[in-house]
Amino acid sequence: MNCNEMRELLSPYIDSLLEDEQAKEVSNHLTSCVSCKKIYDELQDITLLLNQSEELEVPEAFEQRLRESINLVRNEGLQKTGKDAFVKKRNRWRMASSIAAIFAVGILSYGVYNEVISPVSESLRGADQLGSAYVEDHAEQKESLMTDGKADGLHNGMLSGDNQDRSVSSMESNSATAPKNASNDSRKESLDNTVSSTNTKEDFEVSLRAAESDASDPESGSQHSILADSIPGLQPPIDGDYVSSQGVQNTTDNQFYRQLIKERLVRYNYQITEQSNDPAEEWLFKVFIFTDQDGNTYNNEILITGKDGEIHVENNENMRL
Amino acid sequence: MLLDQTEKYLIKNAISGDEKSFEALISGCHKKAYNIAFRYLRNEEDALDALQESYIKIYKYLDKFKGDCKFETWVYRIIVNTCNDMLRKNSKLKNTDSIYKIEDEKETILEIPDLSQAPEKVYDRKEEANRILDCLERLSQNQKEIIILRDIQGFTYEEIGEILQCTIGTVKSRLSRSRLKLREIYLEQI
Fold first, then answer.
1. pLDDT tens digits, one per residue of A113-158
2. Which one of A78, A124, A270, B90 has the minimum C-beta count within 10 Å?
3. Is A4 on the interface with B (CB under 8 A)?
4. Closest Cα partner for A274 from A298, A311, A303, A244?
5. CB contact burial B116-137 (16+ within 10 A = b; e otherwise)
6. Burial class of B168 by CB neighbour count within 10 A (0 to 12, 13 to 18, 19+)
7. CB within 8 A of A253, min separation 6: which ones?
8. ipTM associated with this complex
């Protein structure tokens, strides 16, 4: 072996990683070759000096700094998913109301074109059927979602934003694929053709069902499911006892108050566990506060009422929100 | 193995949002992680930035850890990558030719300084160590990285292979070339 080949082996030789035979060859060479021996000594010296480098302590202030960043990341993740879902839902509702308007115009045009009134009333009866078929199907779907464990309260709240987006969108696509057996498809088909600007077919179907069921059956469970989708990780309450006497307007109010709550509780990790409203248009939210972004744990439930465009936090003495 | 089970348990809890579990997970490799970053970036502030950025990545993507290596290996891998990213953004390192470069065909070395007999200059051991650490800056990122992991942090060849996701053979040859290069650069400084 020549000196060049030998030098390639000096490094593993220093680390005692050569096979016995090779190690012996290197050892023998070093006893007779001055230049290789010099290189070996220098390499060893450098390695030793590096080995003896001081191991530093992590500055104490770092712990607190890390905790704050993690909390920020966690809150950003919750807020981002909430905001994205809120915007999505708001846009979907707007689309639903325009589709409902187009639908109404379509019916009238059809009636006028044929110069017969009865096809119009038949069409309206068909819409009712469509709506109730959807409600029926969606009730089953809602049940399977609740037991699915996909929306799992706090746990989802702690996941990264990606995971939350996935769980929200998987709930959305579940509801989109549910009512495949709706009857009276002729008007739906024409709407399919008309509304080509919707994001996806699924978005359109959800909106259509939202519009139809809101119009035909104010007490359907669909409004609840849309709301549930907008809150990341929200487990729909088991009793599902929502009273929505004004359909579309109530959805807007509810979303409005939820937005106020979100702004008020921006520093906290929370979950709305229950909501209801009475005919006096006062909304009541039960909100469970887990922790704040400083890492303080509360695990307390508070009540927030929403009325006349404002929210008010009840039993606030312990929380000082 | 008991350790593996504990690790899995902590990871599962941390994914569910338990801060204490996350802290327990990273506490085991905290000091080493900081020292890797410090040796890479050479100042406390940058090292802490790299450490924070790495921990945030680990926190965010904890559910993506496949468990195909030890958790702390995964942590060190992320630290190394984060430091490399920071270095790439901040500076470009050049390789320099040394008069002590060993030619393939012939060995014409102009001068061989003898470290053991240098009467005019007395080297303090600590000063020497600092000089060598300065010389690290003149290595390429790949070379510097492997010297830090092996000679400063003391990882085994296997561990280095897992962190850098390369074979042990690659670790061996890279380390050999890096040490020889470091030697050249160091001798030029004297």
1. 677 666 666 666 655 554 444 444 544 544 444 444 443 443 443 4
2. B90
3. yes
4. A303
5. eeeeeeeeeeeebbebbbebbe
6. middle
7. A277, A281, A283, A306
8. 0.79
